[in-house]
């Protein structure tokens, strides 16, 4: 019996998939990447973007046609809007939320799926804390030997007008710090090189449990102590923070520990004050720039990434230029720029989407040119200097080369490098810089 799990969306969905795979493997299935070879096929969906939801409908239409030819059971989970969930109930054999993951074996039995392991619940012995977060007690089947995602927080209380996450993930809830630290220690013991702490608003960690849990800065310090005590090479990242909760003590914690990576992903979404209020971001440009100043002061080598939306309802040319000015001032190393698309459930879906597709494309191109300019300026300053990198994969485009990333998550192609370097730290000298990437050679 084989199972295939398709993952869409963000790193949180990837983390969810690792826990789903773990439960299914314990139930007796062998995992496969081939949909055609699978007897059980699932998808971890993302209702946040329409394109991702369109892909879900395309997949299930194909899978349901296969049912005419062979036995097949399908399921869907992940980040799902209530309206999409109702539709999915008519298309999939199983629809479950992540907090129901410990009961997945029981659901499979009710669908008539039985294996030699199905006489018992493979997750029945997990310690139950909170029905909203019990799925975190499932040990994941990590998809990499050297990189891992560790969820620390789920849900969102910010209610940005363009975002559906509060309706797909629910309100903010923090994972027990003891469980987080235990998982991080296990990963360190396994010699994992890169750990990313995950949450929809990762730096709001502990705010829902004031007096009961430590703060995000305190959590980082405890993780920093684990990394320091291990004496091993390790980079710890987190994503995504919200500027509203980004405090100086978080940046101070990163500065104090070598293993806490000097890379900050800080979504701004727009550089215009009026548009930020319309987006219900609850931070000003002044607030944002104060955080950037703190980063530049305390973490002078840090790279700064961001998220930006173009073509939001009512956005003017002047407001777009305000975003361009912000980008030029901050000099982002990377910006994930997305064209606005309404999502049912988000407040902005009730407003007229009055920016044409052509205008959105033009505005994305405008900001992409700004990003290329600031990124190239930084990358060229790295030429001739040596950096520690983590080799991530064999380069599919160039034989005898591998792809790596610096501590600041800047991509580096290393030429004349053997494949067995994947998963290891190496030192490279940067030999060439382009707008969004680097090339380097190994330093003995």
UniProtKB/TrEMBL annotation:
Domain of life: Bacteria
Pfam families to which the protein is assigned, alphabetical: Radical_SAM, TRAM, UPF0004
Enzyme class, spelled out: transferase
Record-annotated TRAM domain positions: 380-444
Domain Radical SAM core as annotated: residue spans: 142-377
Required cofactor(s): [4Fe-4S] cluster
A molecular function GO annotation: tRNA-2-methylthio-N(6)-dimethylallyladenosine(37) synthase activity
Enzyme Commission code: 2.8.4.3
MTTase N-terminal domain boundaries: 1-113
Keyword set includes Iron: yes
InterPro entries named in the record: Elp3/MiaA/NifB-like_rSAM, Methylthiotransferase, Methylthiotransferase_CS, Methylthiotransferase_N, Methylthiotransferase_N_sf, rSAM, rSAM_horseshoe, rSAM_sf
Keywords: 4Fe-4S, Iron, Iron-sulfur, Metal-binding, S-adenosyl-L-methionine, Transferase
Residues in the signal sequence: none
Protein function: Catalyzes the methylthiolation of N6-(dimethylallyl)adenosine (i(6)A), leading to the formation of 2-methylthio-N6-(dimethylallyl)adenosine (ms(2)i(6)A) at position 37 in tRNAs that read codons beginning with uridine.
Protein's recorded name: tRNA-2-methylthio-N(6)-dimethylallyladenosine synthase
Annotated source species: Pontiella agarivorans
Name of the encoding gene: miaB
């Amino acid at each position: 019996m084989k199972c295939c799990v398709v993952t869409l969306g963000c790193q949180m969905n990837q983390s969810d998939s690792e826990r789903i795979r773990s439960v299914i493997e314990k139930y007796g299935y062998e995992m496969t990447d081939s949909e055609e070879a699978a007897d059980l096929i699932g998808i971890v969906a993302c209702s946040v973007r329409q394109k991702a939801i369109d892909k879900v409908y395309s997949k299930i239409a194909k899978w349901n046609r296969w049912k005419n030819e062979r036995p097949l059971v399908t399921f869907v989970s992940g980040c799902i809007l209530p309206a999409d969930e109702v539709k999915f109930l008519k298309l999939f054999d199983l629809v479950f939320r992540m907090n129901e993951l410990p009961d997945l074996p029981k659901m499979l039995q009710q669908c008539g799926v039985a294996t030699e392991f199905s006489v018992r619940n493979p997750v029945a012995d997990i310690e139950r804390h909170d029905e909203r977060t019990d799925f975190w007690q499932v040990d994941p089947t990590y998809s990499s030997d050297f990189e891992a995602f560790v969820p620390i927080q789920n849900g969102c209380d910010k209610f940005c007008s363009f975002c559906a996450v509060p309706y797909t993930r629910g309100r903010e809830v923090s994972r027990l710090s003891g469980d987080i630290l235990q998982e991080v220690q296990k990963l360190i013991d396994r010699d994992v090189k890169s750990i990313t702490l995950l949450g929809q608003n990762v730096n709001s960690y502990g705010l829902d449990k004031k007096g009961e849990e430590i703060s995000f800065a305190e959590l980082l310090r405890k993780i920093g102590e684990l990394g320091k005590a291990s004496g091993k090479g390790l980079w710890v990242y987190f994503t995504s923070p919200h500027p509203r909760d980004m405090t100086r003590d978080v940046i101070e914690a990163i500065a104090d520990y070598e293993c806490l990576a000097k890379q900050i992903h800080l979504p701004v979404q727009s550089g215009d004050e009026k548009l930020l209020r319309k987006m219900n971001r609850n931070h000003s440009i002044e607030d944002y720039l104060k955080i950037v100043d703190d980063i530049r002061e305390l973490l002078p080598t840090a790279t700064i990434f961001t998220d930006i939306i173009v073509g939001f309802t009512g956005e003017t040319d002047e407001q777009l230029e305000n975003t361009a000015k912000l980008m030029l001032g901050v000099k982002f190393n990377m910006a994930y720029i997305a064209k606005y698309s309404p999502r049912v459930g988000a407040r902005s879906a009730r407003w007229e989407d009055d920016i044409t597709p052509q205008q959105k494309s033009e505005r994305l191109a405008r900001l992409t040119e700004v990003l290329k300019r600031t990124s190239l300026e930084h990358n060229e300053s790295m030429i001739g200097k040596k950096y520690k990198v983590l080799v991530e994969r064999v380069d599919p485009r160039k034989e005898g080369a591998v792809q790596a990333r610096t501590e600041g998550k800047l991509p580096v192609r290393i030429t004349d490098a053997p494949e067995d370097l994947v998963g290891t730290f190496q030192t490279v000298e940067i030999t060439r810089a382009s707008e969004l990437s680097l090339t380097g050679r190994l330093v003995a």
